[in-house]
């Protein structure tokens, strides 16, 4: 199965240095690697749904 790394432009330098992408697509699955649910100001929302949305906004929907 083909693995496709997802590296948003603002993560590129860190991903190259760490040799780690924030997400990988494998078939119909998306695997996330340690991305937190903080917002753009670094604050963690109380709502888990908002945290999940933040993760996807930071990794997949760029």
Describe, in short, the structure shown.
The chain is an alpha+beta fold and 62 residues long. The protein is built from 2 helices and 3 strands.
Care to describe what's here?
With 62 residues, this protein is of the alpha+beta class. The protein has one domain. The protein contains two helices and three strands, in the order βαββα. The protein has a three-stranded antiparallel beta sheet with strand order 1-2-3, with no helix packed on it. The protein starts with a strand and ends with a helix. The model has no long low-confidence stretch (mean pLDDT 86).
Structural class: alpha+beta
Chain oligomer state: single chain
Count of the domains: 1
Gap from first CA to last CA? 24 Å
User: Kindly state the mean pLDDT as a whole number?
Assistant: 86
Q: Would you report the number of β strands?
A: 3
Beta percentage is 15-25%
Largest sheet: 3 strands, antiparallel
Please bin the fraction of helical residues. Answer: 25-40%
Strand order of the largest sheet: 1-2-3
Low-confidence stretches: none
Q: Which properties best describe this structure?
A:
single chain, three-stranded antiparallel beta sheet, 62 residues, 31% helix, alpha+beta
List the helices and strands and how they pair.
Layout: E1 3-6, H1 12-18, E2 23-26, E3 29-32, H2 48-59
Antiparallel strand pairs: 1-2, 2-3
């Amino acid at each position: 199965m083909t693995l496709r790394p997802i590296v948003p432009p603002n993560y590129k330098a860190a991903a190259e240095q760490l040799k780690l992408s924030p997400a990988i697509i494998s078939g119909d699955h998306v695997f996330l690697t340690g991305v937190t649910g903080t917002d753009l100001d670094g604050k963690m929302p109380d709502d888990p749904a908002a945290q999940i949305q933040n993760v996807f906004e930071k990794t997949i929907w760029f």
